[in-house]
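Weekly structure sync, notes
Attendees: PL (lead), two postdocs, one rotation student
Agenda item 3: pending single-chain targets
PL asked that the sequence for the first pending target be pasted directly into the notes so everyone works from the same version. It is reproduced below exactly as submitted, 189 residues in total.
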Amino acid sequence: MSKKPLFISITKISYIHATKHLSKNQVDKLFKAGERAYELGSPLNRFITIHYDDYANKKRPQKFILEYLEHTRKWLTRRGLPVAYLYTLENGKTKGIHAHLLIHIPNGYQVAYKKAMRGWFPFEVKSPRFVFKPIGYPPFGGLHSLNEIYGVLRYICKGLDPATPINGIEPKSQGEIMGRRWGASNSLR
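Predicted structure, written out during the meeting:
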């Protein structure tokens, strides 16, 4: 009796296990992605939080956000704009599954982008389920640790493993997520 080989898709491997924290390496990659966006002239100028626990597939919570980001990528590309974003997922005790996204949307496109987003979600794009905030930057070349982007990065990385502290980040439990807790656009990797 011959055994059939076991084939596992690379895309499914990340969904096999549960994660409780971001590693130091992952946090470093998120900070580098934020810096790279600034250096490329596509600063992550919008901080978006989406609460979608009631719409999330608990075994694959990334699917909801990745579908939203695919809409965003297509929208930006059709307009000849750069695609730059990063995100983290959390599963808080009170708020359930939600995502924090930092994204580059040029200033002249803010209103059109928010209008387009209304058709991408199965719920209304408004507070408290959806929060859309600006991120301030200094003049080009003046980026340093006191700027707002680093504060926002520290906040979205609060799910850092408490056993590997990073200066400036206060680790807090962000619940269990099946699979990958973070991601970045190809342009920022």
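Discussion points:
- Helices lie at 10-13, 24-39, 62-78, 110-117, 148-156.
- Confidence is low (pLDDT under 50) at residues 4-15.
Action: rotation student to compare against the earlier draft before next sync.
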